[in-house]
Write a structure and sequence with these properties.
Elements: E1 8-10, E2 18-19, E3 31-34, H1 36-47, H2 52-59, H3 63-82, E4 86-89, E5 94-96, E6 105-111, E7 114-115, E8 124-130, E9 136-143, H4 154-160, E10 165-167, H5 173-181, E11 185-187, H6 194-203
Parallel strand pairs: 1-5, 3-4, 6-10, 10-11
Antiparallel strand pairs: 2-4, 6-7, 6-8, 8-9
Length: 233
């Protein structure tokens, strides 16, 4: 007996629910249907550019299930475009996520309780959970893994913990892109006490500086780390 479908979370409210070739009456066209969960999968994977694991977390499904949803969605859209069919968007087992429903969780690369200037070589991450009033409700420590942060699996670990934001000192653009592809937004330019940096971020007094560390900018001799470039493949 197949398992019943659980409601898949969707956040987009599409204003347009049907598309067709210009000049062709809808009644004369074959029709295909894109379900709301399929439309959400396309939005997360192809518009926001999230990795499948991060997108699956957003929708509340497994990565394998998300892969099947997005594959079917792409095939449906391709059929409509290539074969000139009427595309209607409706249906699906979905739950509409309200704005602000996703809990806010902020990670800070740290060393001895202070913001570490280098994301890729921090001692550990402090992860702060915020309540509905955006006050810190709990904190936990996650020890950093071996190797450069943007090349290790640490970002995936943070995403699975539910981290939604990263508040950091300096960070290269490659690392920023990896974090964003996991659904984690990045704010650079923080310094001092890690918890206070989060409080400044929540209060709106800390904005992204856009500052990349020297090592990630391709310069040699970055502090005691010997210089490196995480943009290399």
């Amino acid at each position: 007996m197949p398992r019943p479908l659980s409601g898949r979370r969707v956040a987009c409210c599409m204003s347009l629910r049907a598309f067709k070739p210009v000049g062709a009456p809808a009644r004369e066209l074959d029709e295909v249907v894109l379900s709301l969960d399929q439309a959400e999968a396309i939005r997360l994977a192809d518009l926001e550019g999230l990795y499948h694991e991060a997108a699956a977390l957003r929708m509340g499904v497994s990565r394998q299930t998300f892969g099947r949803i997005v594959e079917l969605a792409r095939r449906t859209i391709a059929d409509a475009i290539i074969n000139g069919k009427y595309l209607r968007i409706e249906g699906g087992e979905v739950v509409v996520a309200r704005e602000g429903e996703r809990p806010m969780k902020v990670a800070v690369p740290a060393r001895e309780g202070l913001v570490d200037a280098h994301f890729g070589h921090c001692e550990h991450f402090m992860v702060y959970s915020l309540d509905a009033d955006k006050r810190v409700s709990s904190e936990e420590r996650l020890d950093s893994q071996e190797g450069c942060g943007c090349k290790s699996s640490i970002v995936g670990v943070l995403a699975r913990m539910g981290v939604t934001h990263m508040v950091a000192g300096n960070m290269g653009e490659g690392a920023v892109r990896v974090l964003q592809a996991h659904g984690i937004s990045v704010t650079r330019g923080a310094s001092g006490d890690a918890r206070e940096a989060v409080e400044h971020f929540v209060a709106g007094t800390l904005v992204d500086s856009g500052e990349a560390c020297a090592g990630h900018a391709g310069q040699r001799g970055h502090g005691n780390h010997g210089g490196h470039d995480c943009h290399r493949s």
